[in-house]
Amino acid sequence: MLLRHGIPAVLGLGILLAVTEGLPAYRNTQLANIATEVCAVAGLTILTGLSGQISLGNGAFMFVGAYTVGLLLKHHPITHNGELVLVLLAAVLVAAIVGALVGVAAARLRGPYLAGITLALAVGLPSLPLYSHLQGPLGGHSGFSVDAPPPPNGMDYFRWQAWICVIAAVITLFLLANLSSSRVGRAFRAVRDDEIAASLAGIAVARVQILAFVISAACAGLAGGLFAIVAGSVGPNSFSLTISLGLLAAAVFGGLGTLSGAVYGSIIVTLLPSWSQDIASHVSLSDQVANNLPQAVYGVGLIVGMLLFPLGIQGLVHRVAALARNTLRTKPAGN
Amino acid sequence: MTFLNLVIYGIANGTLYSAVALALVLIWRSTRIVNFAQGGMLMITTFIAWDLVVKHGANYWVGLVVALLAGFVLGAVTERVLVRPVENGPPLNPVIVTLGLLLLLQSVAGMIWGNGLSSFAPEFSLTDYHVGHQVILFSPDYFFIVVAVAVVLIALYLLFQRSPLGLRMRASAFNAEVARLLGVKVGWMLTLGWGLAAMVGALAGVLIAGTQPDYMNPNAFDPLLILGFTAAVVGGLDSPIGAVVGGLAVGVIQALLDNYVSNDLDLFYSFVLLLVVLMIRPNGLFSRTAVRKV
Amino acid sequence: MTKGSVRLFATGAVVALAVAACGGSSSGGGKPTSSAPGVTANSILIGSTQPLTGVAAPGYSEIAPASAAYFKWVNAHGGINGRKINFKYLDDAYDPTQTVTKTKQLVEQDKVFAIFEGLGTPTHEQVVNFLNQQGVPDLFVASGCLCWNDPGAHPQTFGWLPDYTREGKILGDYVKKTFPGKKIGIFAQGDDFGDNGIKGFEQEIPASGIADIEKYSPTNIKIDPLVQKLQKSGAEVVVSFTVPAFTALLKLTSLKLGFSPQLVVSSVGSDPVTLAGLITNFAKEGGATVKGSDLIQNIVTDGYLPSPADQQNSWMKLFVKIYSKYLAKKYPAFDGNIEYGLASAYTFAEALAAAGPNPTRASLVAAVEDNKFAGPNLTPYAYSSDDHSGMTGVQIGVIKGLAIQLQGTPLVTDDGSGPITPYTTAEATAPASGVPSS
Q: What's residue B253's pLDDT?
């Protein structure tokens, strides 16, 4: 059953890893950033798209994952890259536990109330290192550095980081794709579509909802761990509300509830700021306008995107694909 | 005495959160949307008032009225142009659209007015009242703020509960289909709801700007969204009274915990408060029915 | 569903190809024609991340444009060793996540020779490891954190302005001598800025001699109860380690409460032009009977560059000339941030000139460690192979009008328990051309 998506996953991974060879350093870094984002967004799209629970706070789980990795590496420096797997698994585990706690509370809440408490979580949890009694162990405002082992066999540093993140993202997608088509995935959808019907059909609604939170928190924890390794440091300000809202924007923009949508959305949300910055730098404007232009482009992009493609990029892809199929099918008949 | 003073200080600040929460509640009532652009909208209208009053020497009250009108227009246009097309689509699309609008408004403000620090003083004195030798953390300016928010609350009550227009607005929000069948112009009611909400937000913006010397900056109002949303959710999103009580609760809890626990954790207290309130009442303090939707 | 997964993982591959396709457009001085990345026969590219927008933009967003103006001046006067300096600074909005991506962009895509004047402690802290790992010189970080001085772990990184502890010691020394017997309160930012400032201050005045310490959180503007506690402690002198917005907030809140201690403010938060701008509108409502700018008069602070009020100073003459030529139109006031950007850029030009006709990253770092600077700094730099902190002291000053009037002589000290000594060597004079000679 796990083999269901195995072959495409292995192929995709192979292609991606091969591609990193030819990429310049900065492109590999961008690829690493995209892959990191994919992990978190894929988890969120399962939570919000499949089980129907909104979360504005998955950045908080990234914070948990990043600090787990950071603290582990600080207190137990490692030299072998193989041990990174254990460190990242620890990040997943700790984030999942926090996710379970939040999930228990979340299972009682709906719609905007859930949005409210997860928003408060996104802002509140990453502020814990600022607490004077926690500043020592958690590094306060500045955070602390995260030293991952150097790349194996003299491999290029940026390429190695891209590898770590891409492998993690493909494994995440692989597991989530299987989950989504399994009985658990069907239970998620049933709960999303009609809680009462689902519970009549014998589904333990609350338990399913908590499970969805755990899964999405685990994915976000992994993303946070990757983030810490790629950035080489962690700090409370790295997990601002912007991060959490960016995850949601990516999930919705890509096409909520679909894993390919999560990939599309992650690409857009990761690259849009640098694209808009490029655009801004190519027009000559006063500093005041030029400084603010990238954010304006980002904002307009989100609005226009949603107005034009209400089902996200995934919806657009579907439409184009359907159109293409129809054209191909009608052609012979026309002849 | 310190305790009492902190409660007073919390209520004074909480009133401001109440005003922002009111704006969010009005929009939620009319269109079932959480307006993430609220902080950006009130920032823009406050900048407009500031531009008139501080930069061009206009009368403070003229500035305030212009801000309110600008708020109404901004809210109504936002509903018509940006919200209407996504309203009946997937439920999260309006969230993303209002987020996009927030980013856009902030950058536009930066383009027009710069990213510097400026100040917008209030019309009333900030000097705290004294009782004997004891300073009370409350000033004529805060007195004005409390009165202004109370007036808004009463006006909204009269509008919604006592006027035919308010009845039509409530009907549109409660059940658009039925209202439409009864001849209510539902579309206009929703636009009106957004306009009114943004107007309340605009009032909040000008009031808040007067409390600190560094508020005129495109990002200064960011925390208000979180505090206002917390207040609205605590109160139970559907209830204007709830929004006010929620705002006061947030203000007082922050003031007390800042003082007795740590002011480093200010941002964490909203989460604690929400957790406690929502675990006891999952739909906020003032919800009447348990709506399980969205 | 398998079809779905084929599509899913195919998208992944598409991503990689898309990213790779964009790769062709990589710009910047990537041509490895000469001694080091970013260096060509006639130009040199350096980069920086700055808060041009966002919460820290007020004031700080002027620094990099001022530095850029100085480099324009240098380029118009023949450059350094015949090379023009191109300064590319990107907006990180004071968001550490963006600092990381933008710094990586500068290093990996634009291939800058060095990072210069990266601004902020929480932001720049996130890239120090990366820059050192990559061997990129990380010169003159714009923050007084002691953390930049760690040559063992971070051989490429150098501070520039006096660190918070040195400054705190010198302020403490002044308070001890000038206000003996007065009750002292401290108002400080609850992070490394405030903590290290207090640490230095307490070297001179032990904790037992301080009536009250109140720390604020930079994200929490509700400081009235804190200031009220200071008032209740009976403090007659309040020493404040604050950023400008919180200095203004402290002043205004004190007015509201009817509390009027002598203020002693760290140079971080004492720029008179900025403070007057913030307080002026509020003066009347805050209960003052005087103009806003009058409220900041006689605040004690310190400086590490010549005062803008000192019009005879050769550096001020040069800076004002550059300011009028390139900056005056956009920035109507010559304030402390403009001076900072100009002076810091001059120091970079000095280091580059000293790095030789064919500068390498190693020769740039060696030039800084060699410490042969003769710039506008009032006190000498600590730079050596085992010390990467910047200026070693400050000069006490008092706000008069819209400028800081420096008093006495500059004082130097270390960030430990060493003594505070006057520094009497005369400041260097600015070169006539405004460009350091190599």
A: 94
